[in-house]
Structure to design on (140 residues):
């Protein structure tokens, strides 16, 4: 499972099927990574919650936790990890305003609202379409 804020690790969360959340939304994103059931879905939680991830006492093996993909620690049976929002948010620098930057970034990175222009059909293709449709007056 991946836990992130709206400003941190958003790309990782989205790539795992999580939600895109505006940076001003005070939230914790909980995104399953490769869930083996359809009932385990991404959740957006308020920033006031504290999430406990716990390895079951009767777990068959240990689990591993990674922080920003760097430091890795082993969690053994019965171990817990508590996650909560920091009381010291990291300030961000914006080109224009946070919403405009967010939408521009989505548009640029995900190619939102972009579509290749369709080319007109050539005469041969038009004839084939008329033949298939059974209509000699097929003009579109």
């Amino acid at each position: 499972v991946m836990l992130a804020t709206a400003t941190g690790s958003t790309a990782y969360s989205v790539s795992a099927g999580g939600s895109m959340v505006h940076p001003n939304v005070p939230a914790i994103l909980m995104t399953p990574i490769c869930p083996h059931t359809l009932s385990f879905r991404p959740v957006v939680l308020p920033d006031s919650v504290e999430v406990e991830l716990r390895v079951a006492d009767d777990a068959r093996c240990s689990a591993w936790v990674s922080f920003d993909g760097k430091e890795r620690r082993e969690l053994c049976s019965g171990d817990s990890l508590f996650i909560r929002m920091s009381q010291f948010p990291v300030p961000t620098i914006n080109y224009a305003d946070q919403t405009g930057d967010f939408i521009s970034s989505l548009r640029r990175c995900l190619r939102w609202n972009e579509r290749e222009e369709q080319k007109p059909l050539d005469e041969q293709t038009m004839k084939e379409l008329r033949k298939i449709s059974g209509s000699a007056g097929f003009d579109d």
Q: What stands out?
A: The helical segments are 10-15, 98-110, 123-133. The beta strands are 2-5, 27-31, 43-46, 50-54, 63-67, 71-75, 80-84. The chain has three helices and seven strands. The first strand starts at residue 2 and ends at 5.
